[in-house]
Each structure stands twice: as C-alpha cells, then as structure tokens.
C-alpha cells in the first residue's frame, strides 16, 4: 500500500508549466535563473514570458515598454533593460535601467539635471560633448570658489523596500585645481528629512586624493587627519565614481509625503579656487 501511495505522489516538477511559472514569477530574476537549472520542466517555466514580464516595470516608462515589445522574448527584453538603459519617457537627461539580479529600477541623472553652483557668474561651467558620456554633453568646471552639487529624484520612482546608494560620476581635466583637499562631504536623504539628521549622515570624500596637495592644504609638515572617507573608484567605462550615501525605500503600500524626493548632494567646504571637475551625472543604484 505504501508503495502505491508513493507512486501516486505528485512531484513539484510534475506540475503544469503555468503553475510553475506563476510561482517563479513571485520570486526575483536571480531566483528565476536558479530555477532554470533544476530541470527541463523548471527551465521552460522559468524562461517563459509570464515570468519575465513580471520583472519589467510596466508603469511610468513608455520607452521601457516599447523596448520590451520589440524583443523576441520578455527575458531578452529584461536583459536589454539591464545593459544600457533607456531615457525616461523622452527625458534624455534621465536614464533608467534594471539591476540584473533583483530587477530594481536604477537611474542616471545627467549634469543638466543637477543643481550646479553659479555664484561666480555664468562662466563657472561650460557644456561640452564627451566621447564616453551617455548624455549629449557634460559640465566642466572652469572656475569657482564655492562648490556644491545636488541631484533630486522622486522617491516614488525607486523600487520599494530596496537599499540604494547614490554615486557622483565624474572625471577631471588637465590642470585641475582644488579637488584634492580633504574637506569634501556628501549626503543622501529624503527631501523631508530634518536638516540636522541629514548633516549627521554626511560622508567625508575626496575626488582626487593627492598626498602632496593634502600636505599643502594643511600646512608644511602636517599630516592630514584620517577621516575614513569614501575612496573614489575608476569604472570600466573610464569615469570615476564616489559613493555619496545610502538609503532604503519604504515597503510597497507605504506612502511618504506627496512629492517626496531623494536628494544626493556633494559639497566642498573650503572657499578657495577650484577648476577642472568634469561632471557626467549622478546615479542611484540598487545594492545587493
């Protein structure tokens, strides 16, 4: 009798493909890829359009929907949105792509979409094309004394219940000045957060670490204090990036203040001449 009962048991792999696909669609892109390695039945379900259409954001981005419609399969459409991204509803200054492992939405804001200081007159920056940029032009700092840069993104645009980091993406021109001193700070916060709380979360950074310049800034023979700041990183695309801070979005269904924004800011505290910074933009990327 026991043997007959065992023969009548239904294994998970015996379920109809539609049932498997429905279950897998409730997981993540990473888990779907893992399921595809279980068996041929799981592979067919995990690669189905039903699964991968759930991972493609359907609302708020017609370009993403159009790209998905042109792909041969929804999985190919998803992978395409993970590579270069697409402009957000015709806004060439904002690009959206998906984190390949989680499907979380990531964004890049061009220099044109950022707040840049103009305290020293209209010639503080010049707008020039750049061969490595994803955007039509970048901002090159010509000369200023006070430098602060910030980018804003609607909090609702980010994927709920996800940890994010913001990154300043930049380069430097030959003859740059004032970018190596250890008095640079960044912060990432919700726009409604109290200023005191935002200040408490500020990070020490340095765009162009240079020991000789640091010693010059602090005085001959003086060792600059170790602030434990964020180190810049050279990317594969040739740009440098430095982390500006982190935050976690609210759970799905929870609502913040109407129109609430995520704000990422970079500031140089010292009022001395600065030039040669090339700003490509600010990215908001999901963390694993």
From TrEMBL:
SUPFAM superfamilies on file: F-box domain
F-box domain sequence ranges: 13-55
Short name of one Pfam family: F-box-like
Gene3D superfamilies: 1.20.1280.50
Name used for this protein in its record: F-box protein PP2-B11
């Amino acid at each position: 009798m026991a043997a007959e009962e065992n023969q009548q048991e239904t294994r998970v792999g015996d379920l109809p493909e539609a049932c498997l696909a429905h279950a897998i669609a409730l997981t993540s892109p990473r888990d779907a890829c893992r399921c595809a390695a279980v068996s041929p039945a799981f592979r067919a379900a995990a690669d189905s359009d039903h699964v991968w259409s759930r991972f493609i954001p359907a609302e708020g981005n017609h370009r993403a929907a159009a790209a998905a419609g042109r792909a041969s399969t929804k999985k190919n459409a998803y992978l395409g949105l993970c590579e270069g991204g697409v402009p957000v509803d015709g806004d060439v200054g904002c690009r959206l792509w998906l984190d390949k492992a989680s499907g979380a939405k990531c964004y890049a804001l061009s220099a044109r979409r950022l707040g840049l200081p103009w305290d020293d007159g209209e010639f503080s920056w010049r707008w020039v094309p750049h061969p490595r940029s994803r955007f039509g032009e970048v901002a090159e700092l010509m000369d200023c004394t006070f430098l602060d840069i910030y980018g804003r993104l609607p909090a609702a645009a980010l994927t709920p219940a996800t940890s994010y980091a913001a990154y300043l993406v930049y380069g430097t021109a030959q003859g740059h000045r004032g970018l190596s001193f250890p008095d640079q700070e960044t912060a990432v916060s919700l726009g409604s957060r109290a200023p005191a709380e935002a200040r408490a979360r500020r990070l020490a950074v340095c765009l162009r670490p240079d020991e000789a310049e640091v010693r010059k800034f602090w005085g001959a023979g003086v060792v600059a204090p170790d602030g434990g700041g964020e180190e810049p990183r050279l990317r594969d695309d040739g740009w440098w990036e430095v982390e500006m801070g982190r935050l976690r979005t609210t759970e799905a269904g929870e609502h913040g203040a109407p129109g609430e924004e995520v704000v990422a800011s970079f500031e140089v505290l010292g009022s001395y001449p600065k030039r040669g910074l090339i700003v490509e933009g600010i990215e908001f990327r999901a963390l694993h």
